[in-house]
UniProtKB/TrEMBL annotation:
Portion of the parent chain present: 677 to 930 of 932
All copies of domain EAL, residue ranges: 1-254
Descriptive protein name: EAL domain-containing protein
Signal sequence extent: none
Protein species of origin: Paenibacillus chibensis
Length: 254
């Protein structure tokens, strides 16, 4: 209860912040987007990882106002960068399953896009396979509405969920994000290399975009590029950073 109250206050008192991690096109050596990653700057505990508080936010339902806050602020930030004449990058925002159970997720997203004036093509939403199978009927309907607006949807942590591949036919998915647990060992571990190869080929055959997460070395980047997987994200390029640092390092100097 104490933690829950503190989290509730965090939202109220501006203790939540968004870090951004660049998504790179390795072929053109440009930044194409950022992923918004929530942080809690706790007054006494310091920076608390979302791994610690998202589960509580989900249990208590606080994820609904928190998720809305993340979405609104991420869209505002990207729109501000666009207005400044920076490269037209996209933003990827993580959605939790509870947000699909909320009253009117589609209406909320639509109204945020309208208020922030961000063009829908620059908003990407990330969901996991487990979220898709949890409430597949309502999730499918909401995803179709979101796609109708021009928003694209990515499957996060692809390959780690407990789901069949059949949903890729029925759900309006644009992108597979290869989970970092596969990418991290592609050089040393033949099995992870094989899984990564297979995901890339699956995406290519289904005409989906594919992005590799958790790229930490040049060797991993070269491995992926050799298989025409050029979209990458990971510490090799950049850690998640404050908005000001992204603008300074990646956006303003071209
Ligand atoms: O940034 P980091 O790797 O520590 O994130 C840990 C986990 O928290 C990841 O699984 C990430 O998807 C999740 N996460 C980060 N930001 C958000 C957010 O705004 N909403 C939701 N639902 N999950 C998030
Ligand atoms: O689950 P999701 O993919 O949304 O979360 C991404 C998480 O991965 C974030 O917590 C982010 O900080 C972390 N991350 C991003 N790049 C790397 C990386 O290169 N290596 C590792 N170990 N973690 C990363
Ligand atoms: Mn993600
Ligand atoms: Na992921």
């Amino acid at each position: 209860v104490k933690f829950e109250n503190a989290l509730y206050k965090a939202l109220d008192q501006n203790e939540l912040m968004i870090y951004y991690q660049p998504q790179i096109n390795y072929e053109t050596n440009t930044i194409v987007g950022v992923e918004a990653l929530l942080r809690w700057n706790h007054p006494t505990e310091g920076m608390v990882s979302p791994d610690e508080f998202i589960p509580i936010a989900e249990e208590t339902g606080l994820i609904v106002p928190i998720g809305e806050w993340v979405l609104r602020n991420a869209c505002l930030q990207i729109k501000e960068w666009h207005r400044k004449g920076f490269p037209l990058i996209s933003v990827s925002v993580n959605l939790s399953v509870r947000q699909f159970e909320q009253d009117n997720l589609f209406g909320m997203v639509k109204s945020i896009l309208k208020k922030t004036e961000l063009a829908p093509e620059y908003l990407h939403l990330e969901v996991t396979e487990n979220q898709i199978i949890k409430n597949s009927d309502i999730t499918l309907k909401t995803m179709e509405q979101l796609k109708g607006l021009g928003i694209s949807i990515a499957i996060d942590d692809f390959g780690t969920g407990y789901s069949s591949l059949g949903y890729l036919k029925n759900f309006p998915i644009s992108t597979l994000k290869i989970d970092k647990s596969f990418v991290q060992d592609i050089i040393q571990d033949e099995d992870n290399a094989a899984i990564t190869n297979t995901i890339i080929t699956l995406a290519q055959n289904l005409h989906l975009n594919v992005i590799a997460e958790g790229v930490e070395t040049k060797e991993q980047a070269e491995f992926l590029a050799a298989r025409s997987c050029y979209l990458m994200q990971g510490y090799y390029f950049s850690r998640p950073m404050k908005a000001e640092d992204i603008a300074e390092l990646y956006l303003s100097c071209g």
